[in-house]
């Protein structure tokens, strides 16, 4: 009987513990998801209602700003405005798409072989190169901004999309992620393939990429999220407004058009959300791989 | 090897375990399938999102192109500002004259109507001859009556005049007689006064001779020199007399003679001399009294003479003024003259057959006689004299009037024909309607009375360096401005926008305006027309041709 009671108490304790953890996690999740929920509600809120809610913030009046999860008088006016009356939004959307797609393609062409080489080949200075990759990965953009500016200007690609794409193509973080995954492929398989007469490219193409696909996809997903939210490089290297990505559009919207800004933000969020949903598993694996210390 | 036989319980638990494991595996497979579905759904969603964004890219561009205002632009050009003043008016008579006839004559026939053009000498109307004859006879009778009245008035006046003359004569005679009589009375009184004064003087002389002292009268009586009785001055001369007319009380009661000194003789002699003196004084007083009485009588005679003279003179004056003035004969005389003139005119009319003729070439503008009725004192007809030319009268807007002045050249357009080289005669404002009346003198042959024509006058200014179509000028709060096209780098590339440029309008007409502005140059592209409302900063595009 005592043993059974002990077991029952232990079971109850575990349940309570689980409930507390769940509560804390839910609260934190709400805090994290709160802005997204407000964003969705605000994109359907009319201008007058929004003015009432955030007048202390916009006009500097007394009191506190309030927010409603769902508007009293929902309207699709801002949505219509975004989709039908704002061709500049779509111009910037496709600029962002071009930058992201170009960077990802470039990384597949350049970063993938780099990661495979670092993972399965030995060459003089390999460790130095690897360390260089680590150091460059640690450096913020502001450190390399001037040197990048000079190089791009020398190449004559300043104020073009290549000025943003090229530096992104040679990003070291995706190489690092893919390197971790390529490193997980056993050498024995590769030796066996060599014994079977497969060439190095064949090994890379037919074995390395399929076996390291999860790493590749995770790197791509991470890079997509990074490229989609680029601000510093476009501000620095792009002067022509017609080349600006979507990340530079939202700051241009005045506070008087807060509803339009929220709706545009929600639409901007969608591609990143979908990509995240599609690659969440791989993302998880990639973050895990990045966290493992060698 | 020996295999231990499993017990029933062991076999059962193994089966359950396998089932449990299978269930777990199945569950994980389901989860994996769900995850795979999620992933493929997300990928499909991403693809769908891209397709939707592509579609909306096109749609939003199309929608934006509808909302972007299309404009027309023009660069400022140098030109002269032409002001065309236009107005509508009619041709009117320049001179109008009245055609008179005798009043109270029956109208037999009227040959013209209003607006009809007649030549000089044309018959306008015919009056009834019998009616004319009646009027002549009537006038003749009236003249006779007046003449008779004049005769009667003349005789009455003569008689009155005769009476007045007689009255005047009598008054004069009365006056003369009165003056004579009164003169005699005055002379008599004067004579009496002189005698009394002489007696007094003689007495004084005697007394003086007796006493060898001048006898002083209690009052020195200054004896005036008597002058001829002058009716006007008599009163004044007698006012100069001192003591004359003084009341007898003025004569002192005590006849003390302050200048006489007593010698101190003995009482009997004194008594005798005193008695003599008293006696002399009494005599003297009597003489003085007599002199005074004579003086008073003389005064009285003068007064009565004056009174009589005045009365007689008034009677003469009354006789001269006579009765009221009667001008009846003169008035009748004037009336007779008028009626004779009128009769003469009627006779002329009768000799003319009773016809009213047009004195000049013209147009009948008014008719004041009616067939079968009598003529009146007003003009029978009013005519516009076309020989003196015509006038064109038009009205123009007050704003346009500042571009036109007296003497400026104008042209008239009527009936497809244009008449140029005409000049403005007068310009008069019509305050009520805020218009200005312009008059142009027309020579004979240019249009006819009653014709309508449009007036046109063109005035050109100096050449302005920057002029724009009037549609390019906007105004707000009393300030004029234009919209200038500019290129702007936007997210959608190089786009056309408009900016506002304030201008000053120097001069303008209905088409162009001359402007000056520091923000404009000769190469600026100014928006002259748009298919929607635009504001500074708006995106626009050039109109499709």
CATH superfamily of the largest domain in chain A: MetI-like
* Secondary-structure element order of chain B, N to C: HEEEEEHHHHEEEHEEEEEEEEEE
Q: Helix coverage percent of residues of chain B? A: 40-55%
Interface with most residues: A-B, 26 and 24 residues
Shape field of chain B: elongated
Count of separate DSSP helical elements of chain B: 6
Mean pLDDT across every amino acid position of chain B:
83
DSSP strand count of chain A: 0
User: Tell me, what is the CATH class of the largest domain in chain A?
Assistant: Mainly Alpha
Rg calculated over all Cα atoms of chain B:
67 Å
- Unreliable spans of chain A are none
Q: What is the rounded distance between the termini of chain A?
A: 50 Å
CATH architecture of the largest domain in chain A: Orthogonal Bundle
Give the percentage of residues in beta strands of chain A. under 5%
Give the N-terminus to C-terminus distance of chain B in angstroms: 103 Å
Overall pLDDT metric of chain A: 88
CATH T-level fold name of the largest domain in chain A: MetI-like fold
Largest sheet of chain A: none
Q: Strand-residue fraction of chain B?
A: 25-35%
